Amino acid sequence: TETHVCFATPNWHSAKRRDADGDADSIMLLMDSLLNFSRQFLSDRIGGLMDAPLLIQPLVLPHESQPQAHNLEVVKFLPLEFFKSTMQQNKASNVTCVEIIKSRLETERQFFGYYFTHPTTSLTTSKSRSAYSTLGSMLDKFDMQIKNAELIDAVNTSEIVSNVISTHLVPDIMGNLRAYARQNFRCTGCGKSYRRIPLIQTCICGHNLIPTITRGSVEKYLKLAKRLVEKYDVGAYQRGRIHALSDEIDLVFGKNKGDQSLLSDYT
Fold first, then answer.
1. Cα 74 to chain center, whole Å?
2. Phi and psi at residue 27, in whole multiples of 5°?
């Protein structure tokens, strides 16, 4: 296939900690990792060990994969009882008439016999790459997610926006603001790192010191968060959290030159 995709069971993808949502993936030949790899190739910076082939597991054990991979149905057809359960709006965890991988864990059948309900001649589409990998910035990806949510009647767009704000945007802004207060300062010449700026205001080599975290990295999602709380009904609490974070950032950095001054600023 010409599609940029790697076909495998959910257990295999889950063992690699890669979800089917556009995450980057790769395959390495076994002897290549054994012969052509050394820890000396790894970066000594934060994240240098990430995705490095430090552990080789010859067998994927389904019970060691993430729980979300265990919810895949492995039946040839869906029984009538299943459709009756959907009409009663029962929770998926209470529906036991459909066999899933979870019910096979710790048994011999956990490795084979993964049936499917609908045969197909192709697993690919006309799109060779997912939109997640073709869209540029995270803002573009999020805007596309919101557009898709608005097209689906069963989806509450305001609820999705509220969840994204509380689980992603707010923790990101708060974490970056905290990191800014604890940041180091780096020399533009020799690269030496300082926990605090020396009294001489420069590095021992004479070059200037610059911060490692800038205002732009702290408030990169702030404008998006402000736009979302004004456009969607996310509740007074979420709206208040975003405005409070905005005020806190202004107290730390000062207002941008393009910000309009208020009369209260001169009292």
1. 28
2. -125, 130
Question: What is the amino acid identity at position 265?
Answer: D
* Residues whose CB is less than 8 angstroms from the CB of residue 230 and which lie 6 or more positions away in sequence, other chains included: 239
Q: How far apart are CA 252 and CA 177, in angstroms?
A: 9
Residue 22 in domain: no
Residue pair 22/132 in contact (Cβ under 8 Å)? The answer is: yes
Question: CB–CB of 101/71 below 8 Å?
Answer: yes
Task: Write down the pTM of the prediction.
Answer: 0.56
- 240-254 burial string, b = 16+ CB within 10 Å, else e? ebbeebbeebeeeee
- How many folded domains does the chain comprise? 1
Coil, helix or strand at residue 263: helix
Contact 38, 61 (CB under 8 A): no
Beta strands in 142-253 (DSSP E): 185-187, 193-194, 209-211
What is the mean pLDDT of each successive set of 10 residues along the chain, which is 267 residues long?
78 77 75 84 74 79 86 92 91 88 89 89 78 77 86 88 89 88 85 84 87 84 88 89 90 70 51
Tell me the residue range of the domain where 221 lies: 134-255
Residue 145 within a domain: yes
Question: Cα–Cα distances in Å, from 204 out to 169, 185, 195, 210?
Answer: 39, 13, 14, 14
- Tokens describing residue 156: 């509450």
Task: Return the H-helix or E-strand segment holding 184.
Answer: none
**Three-class SS state of 187:** strand
How many whole angstroms separate alpha carbon 266 and alpha carbon 245? Answer: 22
- Report if residue 108 sits inside a domain: no
Task: Tally DSSP H helices, then E strands, for the chain.
Answer: 10, 3
